[in-house]
Amino acid sequence: MENAHYGILRRRRTSVEREFGRLKHEYGLAFLRVRRIERVRLHADLTTLARLGQALARARAVPRAA
Fold it and tell me: Which of 4, 11, 51, 59 has the most CB atoms at less than 10 Å from its CB?
């Protein structure tokens, strides 16, 4: 029973680490040049907002089926 619980925790941890890696490398959050947590949060929020805007623009560019 204990091993099954460990497997679930390991899979969750792996998915979280994968997402952190994606944020750092694909979203430009790896090499922050700002200090203080407020500025880091602002940088992360603006980066995420820009990426969501890009995704929205791509989604709107796809023609819809009639």
Answer: 51
